[in-house]
Amino acid sequence: MFFVRPSWIFHYIFPKIIWRKETLSKEIWLTFDDGPEPEVTSWILSTLNELQVKATFFLVGKNIIKFPALIKSIKRNKHVIGNHSFSHKNGWLTKHDAYIEDVKRCQQLMKDNTLFRPPYGKLSFRQQKSINKHYKIILWDILSMDFKENIPKDKIIDNVLENVEPGSIIVFHNNLKSFANLKLTLKEIILELKKNGFVFSTTW
Fold first, then answer.
1. How far apart are CA 128 and CA 4, in angstroms?
2. pLDDT (tens place) for every residue of the chain, 204 residues total
3. Helix (H) or strand (E) holding 151
4. CA-to-CA distance for 83 and 87, rounded, in angstroms?
């Protein structure tokens, strides 16, 4: 079994980051990082539409510039978008000012957005403090592991289904690296979650 939930120490250091949502119902939050990417994003949107599920897409600015029609398609299908930085920088390896500028550059492409997810889930305390002035910082409690090569399909499915609980924030990826695993698992996971009474929210 994969470790999917952050250690309590991270919750203590970063109390204003949203790791999971507090809810009394069986609501969960489905999220996709990276993208947009034509083949992958179109497939995800088609699958979500077929299953009547809404999700949140954390998008990378340089990809939005390459494929502007895709962000319009995401919004037209009533999904929520969030800032995933312009160039997917690792906050632990990037100086504060450069990191904040990268976030701002992406924000210029999604004017009304109030959500941010740091690439790799990594940012410094100072970066977090600055970003929290303008955004809700969204991390997760379940990482699907769809980005891992040669991972058995059942491992991804079990990693989500055996750890999900009301309020869970689940991460999949909207990129070519994860696409093969996504095609094998996403629909089955969503159908099983619905069967188990979970509903998908985009209210942050």
1. 21
2. 444 455 445 555 566 899 999 999 999 999 999 999 999 999 999 999 999 999 999 999 999 999 999 999 999 999 999 999 999 999 999 999 999 999 999 999 998 899 999 999 999 999 999 999 999 999 999 999 999 999 999 999 999 999 999 999 999 999 999 999 999 999 999 999 999 999 999 999
3. none
4. 11
CB neighbours of residue 132 within 10 Å: 14
Q: 31 phi and psi, to 5 degrees?
A: -130, 150
Residues 6+ apart with CB under 8 A from 126: 96
Residues forming the active site: 33, 173
Contacts of 104 (CB under 8 A, 6+ apart): none
Distance CA 197, CA 45 (A): 22
